[in-house]
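seq/struct pair 1
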Amino acid sequence: MSNWVINQGLSAFILVVWMGINIFLFVYYYLLYDLGPQFEYTRELLGSALCWARAPAAVLNFNCMLILLPVCRNLLSLLRGSLICCGRTMRKQLDKNLTFHKLVAYMIALMTGLTGVVITLALILMITSSVEVIRRNYFEVFWYTHHLFIVFFAGLVFHGAGRIVRSQQVTNPPHDNSFCEDQPESWGEIDKCPVPQFAGGFPQTWMWVIGPMIIYLCERLLRFIRYMQSVSYRKIVIHPSKVLELQLMKPGFKMEVGQYVFLNCPAISQLEWHPFTMTSAPEEDFFSVHIRLVGDWTEKLIKMVENLPEGGQGPKMAVDGPFGTASEDVFDYEVSMLVGAGIGVTPFASILKSIWYKFKDSDPKLRTKRIYFYWLCRETYAFEWFADLLQVLEKDMEERGMRDFLTYKLYLTGWDQSHVNHAMVHFDKDRDIITGLKQKTGYGRPNWDREFEQIRQENPSSVVGTFLCGPQALAKDLEKKCVKYSDVDPRKTKFYFNKENF
């Protein structure tokens, strides 16, 4: 339990606070409309429907205020840079922005089912098109339907403009409302119960959402400005396994390790923006991305590049970013454990390149004393585009007498017996037959219990940052291992889990 608190305690606390505010708002407004004297006549006319309509509306307003903030990426990057004094534990919460965005959306869906047909239909389309299988395989469907948020917020703001929910006005002379509440047949017949006068309440939803809407509009304005800025190509490379490398240049562009950008290709679609982690280092005068063929957009882009004449420039490209990620914190840990699956190695390419540059000219003063790097791939040729960098790093660390600084292990997960037989025949060779590295490629998946135990033994009093860019199933496994192998004793090893989210 104590180990779980180390990795998930703050996240759970934030979730409890958010849920507590929702419960408080629901209960408070339910009791207000159920017991408040100013709504006694309205309750007589509408019954329990009044409080069951207004209590969810209050929760709806609160969550609609929050829903846009987690997708304001420039705001999150700004907060990440300004929260250095607050420590990495607080910054980790910013990496869960999309998870929180989804939670808020589910709460809105629960509360809106009671308040508006147009809002409900727009929300249903947005949520159903956001499920993993559609978002991954039919990104365009997700992208276009998600822009129904414009209809959603328009309906939300104008939903209360009709002032349908009304409360009675103060009468002259004042009278005992409770006496008349249960005698609607006597309204206007006796002096004690004059005919009640009703007036609609002032719309309040816009006051909850106006701030986040302004922030989001500023985000979109900034994106438009970046869209108009020129981007030039430095180099275009098509690697094995249909991986496209774009080396791009943009005036005034500055990045940090592990950050990502959104790319837009107007020749394919002027509205679609797709996120890609940069594989270049901050020390380079360009920035690069590696794009794997997944979905229609990447397929069209790769075909356009393949059909370019020799020496021709690629299609017009717009770049939004860079934006911060969990990988920025790699050098804040004494020991870092990097795990990449397939193309998920991209943020770690940036980190390892930066390490090479830091060691190239001088002896850098890094807080990080050791890095463990794991790369899992299904195909042998997927290793090719990244193996060159590892060979340079391997040689450089040996020459500096820092062989223990970088420990890397590569695993081929999509293997058959022929791969194993081939490896056994060439087992006595100094270098791996697949990558050309001294470290031999493993077959299958890592034994994570053994790996975590080894790291804990080699770093008995260190804080280990575990970083993953890969599938959710692997994330759950690694997160459990971080909890299992962390010690509550501050003098012993602790593992902190971090995952890339887009």
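seq/struct pair 2
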Amino acid sequence: MYVSIPSILVGLGGKCLLDWTLVFLQREHICKTLLGVFCISLAIVDSALAVCVTTVHVHADGYVLLLGSRLTRYHVCLLVQIVGQVYSALQWPVVVSAGLDHFCTVTLRLNSIATRTRWLACSLVTALLWLLTALYVFLLSDFTPVMEDVPHHQIHQCFVLHTSQILQVAMLLLLTLGCAALHAGCSARLFKNLLKDQITDQTRAHARKSVVHQAVHVFLNTWALFLVFLAVLFLTCVEIPAYLGLNAAWLCFLNSLLIAVVLCVACPASQLAQGLAAVPPDSFCEWRFTFSSAAED
């Protein structure tokens, strides 16, 4: 799709404002998770991109000299396409890495590790994600820039790639969450019908069903409108520019969704009841669970 450069500037400006606003709102615990550290790095990259595009676009001669190199609007379009491709390629690696981070936090209580140590580890992983993804885009992918064959001062719009990874990620994780909820419900019913004499197993099944029910309830109470928005995008086949696809709001949604998936799939109810499982920090959902005395025992 072709997008005018002023529209790109407006989109990047709004995205930067959103990124830094959400970083500020999560400032108390943002360095404690991989997604939080990655969100900071994304805000920095978006800001640098917005500054570069704005500087070249508003210059009267249509170009800027930087370290002896002449940067024109050709480079603006090229930079936007490269960054968009990197953002698209980052979607799945970020999801997998953040999912592993949340899984380890819940099952191994990694929140007890010193904040500085966690921040250093998350920063290292974040840097590796950016580096490896950039190398993949430049060396292994079939990415080919699309440039207009006109003088640089006549370029007023850029060809930008669109991303479909957002809907793919959301659909896969939501299906996983739904399957976990269905499995918990069926397991509780199965134990009730076939193992009436095994009170312990039956109690565990009901406790797990309670955890899954509460986790899904908390997630939907917070993100129901966002899910409706994603459904509208899916049904109307709206193309999302790749340079806007990876943003702080999307990462906050992923954080809550991954927490819900990990709690439903990998966290025993007994650990939550006894305080042996740590829930990753979340600025949008309050992950509080209540248990009956039988479930706690």
